Amino acid sequence: MRKNEGITKRSLFLKLGGGIYEDVSELAEKGFVSQKKSGRKKAVSTTTKFKAYFGQE
After folding, report:
1. How many C-beta neighbours within 10 Å does residue 9 have?
2. Alpha carbons 56 and 48: distance in angstroms, whole number
3. Residues 34-50 pLDDT 10s
4. pTM, rounded to two decimals
5. Is-contact 33 46, C-beta < 8 A?
6. CA-CA-CA-CA torsion for 35, 37, 42, 43, nearest 10 degrees?
7. Residues 24 and 33: beta-carbon distance below 8 Å
8. Residue 57 or residue 33, greater confidence
9. CB of 24 within 8 A of CB of 44?
């Protein structure tokens, strides 16, 4: 996900399958990703917590 910063949930679904909706919700709940409305879709971006935890800056 880090490589595709700001990717929509729909794009993730097309790449990874239907399980992403639950996974993204869990990551958002734990503060690893944020979701922003992008028109009718939601864009998913990593947070600083994600970057610190997974060692990506």
Report:
1. 17
2. 9
3. 999 878 888 999 999 99
4. 0.77
5. yes
6. -60
7. yes
8. 33
9. yes
